[in-house]
Amino acid sequence: MHVVVPELEQLAAQAEVCRDCRLCEERTTVVFGTGDPRADVMIVGEGPGREEDLQGIPFVGRSGKLLDQLLGEIGLERRDVYIANVVKCRPPGNRDPRPDEIDACKHYLREQIQIIDPTVVVTLGNFSTKLLLREQRGITKLRGVAYAWWKRVLVPTFHPAAALRGGQRVLEQMRDDMELIRQVVAGEVDPYAGSEEAGSEEAAEPEPVEHVPVEAEQASLF
Ligand code: URA
What we know:
Layout: H1 6-16, E1 34-35, E2 41-45, H2 50-55, H3 62-73, E3 82-85, H4 99-116, E4 120-124, H5 126-133, H6 139-142, E5 147-149, E6 152-157, H7 160-166, H8 168-185, H9 200-203, H10 214-220
Parallel strand pairs: 2-3, 2-4, 4-6
Antiparallel strand pairs: 1-3, 5-6
Helix pairs in contact: 1-4, 7-8
């Protein structure tokens, strides 16, 4: 059993009754997030699909099975990590979340990150990667690097749905990114050290900000 973190429970209770955007109208459940609230690794997807909407748990469909498998390959189980999404309610018909929906919902993710306080944040696909890195470039350009990000390390990779659609090449790149995650967790790669393994200059973007007061971080994180 995981520890209960009251702040996170309160935030989940708030999300459960959230009506801040149109996605509340067709949702079955709010998919807030699951896993170890004290996890070192937090995984951020896009938004719930049909299965997730029915069960209230992130990544339980086909993408989730692949995610579990890839995590397993680097010795991580689902219960070792925390998994959440950019939007907590299913976009109808699995369409992309819209900018105003992301804007309305992103404070939940921001607060989740601050409460869980992971050392490594793994973004899956374009939506979470672009949001957190404040980037216009897509995941194909951004993946493969461990970024110094608000005193944490952010590792972007493809969304597992892309591997399910895109076949072997995407899957192999995801495996490379998983290996990078393993190395970051093991302390073998540290973008703050500016070492060769960390991807040197590329890994230093965006600039790490030292000693950010909580309020400043809250305002600027993404
Ligand atoms: N895709 C996501 O981005 N998140 C889920 O929870 C399930 C599928």
